[in-house]
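Title: [Solved] Phosphotransferase enzyme family protein 3D structure

Original question kept below for reference.
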Amino acid sequence: MLSGFIDRVWDAGVVGWSPAPEVRVSVNGSPSANVPCSNTRLDVQAAGLSDDGRVGFHAALQLTSGDIVRVTTDRGKPLRHSPWLYMAPETQGWLPASLAADHPEYSAIAELAGPLAFERFRPLFGKLEQVVAAVVDAPGVSPKVVRFGVPFREVASLQRFHGQVLQPAQIACPALYHELALGTRRVQVFDYFPGISLDRFGLGWEAWLPAVMDELARLQVAGQRLRGAPGRRLGGIRAVMYRLQWRTLGDALGGRAAGERGFLLWLLVVLNRLPRVLSHGDLHRKNVLVDRESGTLALIDWDRWGYLPTGFDMARLMHGLPGEDAERLAGGSRLHRLGVAGFTYLLKRQDSPGFAVSAEGQALRRRCRELAG
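Solution (posted by the thread starter after getting help):
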C-alpha cells in the first residue's frame, strides 16, 4: 500500500498526503513535528486511494537553502519524494563547499575536500534516504558527478560495464572516469551532463521517447554480441524487475488478489518466457537527462543493468501513461509490445489497489491475452 506523497516543499512548509493517521516531519535529521493527516484531498479520493479523502497534511517550517526535509508515516515508512532537498531559486541548485563541513547531512561530501578540490556542490538523492551523489564544481575543471553509496562488490562490475559495453557501443551516458577510496567506502566520478530529467518536463516529455529507444536498440545490439561473455549476477530481488514480480507473486498466492489470481500467475509465466535483451534495468524518467539547448540526452544510473525481458525498460520509462498509450509509443514486435503491456499492468496495480477492477485494468488484461496469441 502507498505510504503517501510529498507534493511540495517551500521555505515555509511542506504539504502532501498519507493514509496514515499522522506523519512525522524532520529537517536535517532532527525531528520537527508530528502532523495529522486530516485535510480533505479530493484528488486522492477521486483516484480511489482514500474513501473520504481526509488524508492531507500541511506542516509549517522555516527552511533555508540546503535543508533536507524527510516525511515518514507514524510507522517510519518514507513517503514518495522523501527526502526532499529545499533550494531557494537564487542558488540555481548549488551550495557553497563550506556548507558541507557544517551540515550533518552532507558529511559524506565534506570528505571529498581532500581528494577533490571544489568550490561548490549540488547534492542529489537516491532510494537510500541519504545523499548518494553530488555534482562538484572544481576550479578550472568541468563539473563532475561523484556517486556515493555504490556497494563495494558493484564497483568493479560497473567499471567493466562502462568500459566494455557502454563506451564501445557509444551509448549516450556520462563517461565514468575513476573511483576514489574514502575510508572503507568507494565513490565513482562521472562527467557531468548539463540537462534536466524527463520527470521535470511536464507535458511533452514523450517527444524524447524515440531518442531513448534508439539508445536502447544500440544497447541490445551490443548485448547480442556480448551475450556469451561472463556477466554480472543480477542480485535477486534487489533488481527492480524481481522486486516487482516477487510482490505480484506474493499477492497472488497470499489471497490479496483473489479476483485476478489466475491472470497474475499466467502473466508472470508469460513475461519470464519473453526474449531477454540487455537492459538498463531502472529506466524511470529521473534517469533520463535532456539538454534542450543541444538536443542531446543521457541515460544515467546503470547499477541494475542486466538481461531482462523485452519491454521492461519501456514499461518502466512510461509508467503512469495509460496502457494503450504505452504500447502505441513503444511499438516494436508483438513480443516487445506484450512485455510493455504486461509490465505496465504490474506497475499500475502496484500503485493503485483498485486498478484490477477498473475499466483500464480489465482492458489491459484483455490486451495482454491478445498479444500472447
